């Protein structure tokens, strides 16, 4: 999918520019940039931009929100990798932020990305109405905050060493990864000017996509190679983590993954979208190897 | 100053309510609330509300911004106290957040307060125009982010074990504590509808107040009692930190403190303010014992 690479390039440039122009301590900027440019797939901002396109509007309208979203995703990875959290040494095949810059700077780089994200959203959305900018800002804060992603990380901590039911696992993933993915699509729909019906259907689509994404992640931890996933294979098993394959069997997880992909595609078919990018992204999530 | 106690009470109630209504993991809410209700002076939000009053508008207009500001101040204390940062066991005479809830939850509670602050600002400012809400949100993000408070914390880290000049020390404090204090007063002026001249003078006032606040802090670390300041006396000396008394002598620091207070009061005299609260707060900063 050539468009993935093209969009990633545009986003990479915007993100680098946003950090470069900061009047901030050099080490802090380096730490922020290190994780931002660590080869992420840019899935969330690409979903956002592709949703705008699917509704029939110019993607560039969503650039400020897309950048903010990627900064928040990146901050969450930096804090997640800290010794007190997951204590990971590698991320995408490179040493984690705190391994390179030290724990204190890694904490601050995460804080800085989270805070700067809100400024970037507001300052880089000149073409959007004030009402929409406020709506996007508060929705992003909610999706990322205690009722969203951070809440999910806390649930994940609480669940350590416990046997989870499939519903509990789903609930944690809904918060921890689902909320930001759903925000990406909802924000794209709002910026694109989707109808209420389109908005609601796209939110349902996002739920299926988020679950599919997580199940695929769990499967990759078993079937992927270290080269592909950028960290040791089988770490979930080694850490005794509840995963879809563990709770449903590997085949059960694959069936559930296919089921969510089918439902996501069915929703897309039912909408009169202006581009096939969301469909392509759905297939990409099914087939991705990293 | 009875009004300090009254305003603190109103703010305490609003902050507690804001946490209570969250649909979030109980442990996360407890950790957020623990530090928010740890007996802080609420100096920043009180400055904000008092500035609105001084301009002649209703303080309640600024409640959303005041709460957001206190949440961001509180998150910064939680992260500052972490083992990887200042490694403090006590804050205001009570065990620090990570001592009670563990490091992982303390990191998340800080992240949650920072993120939720932006939602609170936007959702609790119904009476303000959309333009003003956006302006306050981006100004708060800038004051707290890599070009502001977080940048100052990084500079502070970089300065560890180094002998600083007085200008370097000032520059660090300007970012680390000055930017949020200045935001408090600037936000109050904007919400109150200050003229450009009033706004600029109040920003100059805020600079002096911020420096006075920090110098008083350094002096208290020498002359205060452990009961008053809630942590061991002399910890700056023990940690070999650059402080105003160390660089200027204790008497020199006191003279500089008085000088900033005088200049702050002179600015206030020159403005036709509707209340004497800012003057009272300036005296409070000079005389405070905690």
TrEMBL record, chains A, B:
Keywords: Isoprene biosynthesis, Magnesium, Metal-binding, Transferase
Keyword NADP (UniProt): no
GO annotation terms (biological process): terpenoid biosynthetic process
Substrates-to-products reaction catalysed: isopentenyl diphosphate + (2E)-geranyl diphosphate = (2E,6E)-farnesyl diphosphate + diphosphate
Pfam name, any one: polyprenyl_synt
Enzymatic class: transferase
Phosphoprotein keyword on record: no
Cofactor: Mg(2+)
InterPro entries: Isoprenoid_synthase_dom_sf, Polyprenyl_synt, Polyprenyl_synt_CS, Prenyl_diphosphate_synthase
GO CC aspect terms: cytoplasm
CDD domains named among the record's database cross-references: Trans_IPPS_HT
Gene Ontology molecular-function annotations: (2E,6E)-farnesyl diphosphate synthase activity; metal ion binding
EC number(s) per entry: 2.5.1.10
Family statement drawn from the similarity comment of this UniProt entry: Belongs to the FPP/GGPP synthase family.
PANTHER family, per database record: FARNESYL DIPHOSPHATE SYNTHASE
Descriptive protein name: Farnesyl diphosphate synthase
Source species: Terrilactibacillus tamarindi
Lineage, uppermost ranks: Bacteria, Bacillati, Bacillota, Bacilli, Bacillales
